[in-house]
């Protein structure tokens, strides 16, 4: 079966190819950003499908030209700034922190990071809306802009309408009046006005999820308690019993017909929480509140199951909240669910009712659901988009306990969660300065209580959640900055205190390089940047007021993910790279196979790559590159597992259609870490023997392995259609079962 023709995939071949063509036309051969890669665009368009039948095209994009032209050797640190905030009361001393660093000593704050960007606790409290009118006022400029753009209204320099429309939605010429619709604040629906939530439908010691922070459990598509596997393959949760000697038996399934697809799960003792999504349920209920709510809105649903008997999972509770699922965390049994709600605002706010612009939460343990109260909504100082971040807290261990929800009006792109705080990062762009900023908002988490306690701002944009860390009362954040005026890219690291006030910083690191991965480990940080080689930087953060780059290692390729396997050993997973001559006197850099590197960081001034393994060729791909939870580390046995699709006989080219290769393996690869040695330990596939002989034509994307879990001497791998157990002692497959 062709990888493009699998019946389970709704993303048509012609759509995939056209999307790729458009991206290539627009990019002019420049690597396509991951956020708009065909893979991610496909996931946005058809979220129920977790498969990647266009993996070969995604991987081909990774073969695109990374750098054009000849290699020019420059000092990566020329002009790098090191500094401390004035508030530290100290001055920097001159001198470089490493042999390759021409540091510029400074006791000044970085430009445009002055103290007024930080809000006090009192000011943050004042950001809470006092009424729905406050929310409407914050949204009014955006709503007016949307309506203006939609109706073609033009304003003169005094703000007067030049050509108001003569028909359809809006005041008529010469009337000087408004349409007869309720003004904001009239006919309001407060927190006591509720609607029916609809029909609900009939400390995990075994958790193996690759969590970023100890004590903070992340949601994932697979959970285990050591005896049972709970695995979601798009719209069904399969519950599989792990028997002795590698045996398996599927004991039950969970399928929610009302909601479109399952997103993630948590397992806490005998409580299973299934997070799913729909774009219809709450919208129907909103119709009961407002006839103007005519745009379908997404909804996130948390269904709580009692799985004390996994063969008969029983629904205990259902909670829904507005918005698209963003992420979730669980701390000591307390679930924090985060969604993001975009408001279309196709009318001015005086034509809307609160039900049109106030988020709602429902709870099956209550008689009805409710719009959030006004004082549950934080209004950011500058609301640049009509978007809420909605955070709900509920104790998983108390099925009938309260739910507390807060909403922040103003979008965020990433989140980081420590054991007591949540940090939301909002990207903004300064048109005048031609640089981006990351606005950081800190929410204190204490059981059900969610309180915004601080805000701050740093230059540049973060890569992902691993760009942030909280340690010993300090918040550390690494960013990549593109300066539009100077046409230059650089990397920064900032240290902020508990009030998100700047303590110290390193700026202009690795100029011209792109940030590829970050890992904070206690008093140290490791950053990987890339242009033509892969510099691994070791940063000493033992003195928060004086961060220092202690060491630098340059090797071919780059790591997209860093994982500590011991105090002094770090595994990097990414891509190998190679220089290719185009035959016309110039060279370009392309990605090769998947590269695993074992770094010895015992001497931070001299980090070393002690072992490396390269799998496949140009076009190879791993789900790990986009989702760190695809990485399995069986610490007791020193085993690493990652899902892969590998290629062979690759012919890299400058553009997408110039790259050619063949699929050679689709499955799961195990690696053994022994001392300072990293070597391949085995391969597992769910593809049939016939498909393995001709993967280019016969590979079934529904048999692509997404996760692995372990028990004793056995590894259990999971694809959409199968679960398979394999012996770690001899590498032989033990049992295979079909999944629902």
From TrEMBL:
Pfam family, any one: Beta_propel
Protein name (record): Beta-propeller domain-containing protein
Protein keywords: Membrane, Transmembrane, Transmembrane helix
Segments crossing the lipid bilayer: 57-82
Coiled coil (UniProt feature): none
InterPro entries: Beta_propeller_containing
Bias kind Polar residues: ranges: 188-211
The organism's place on the tree of life at top rank: Bacteria
Region annotation (Disordered) ranges: 158-211
Protein's organism: Zongyangia hominis
Biased composition (Gly residues): 167-177
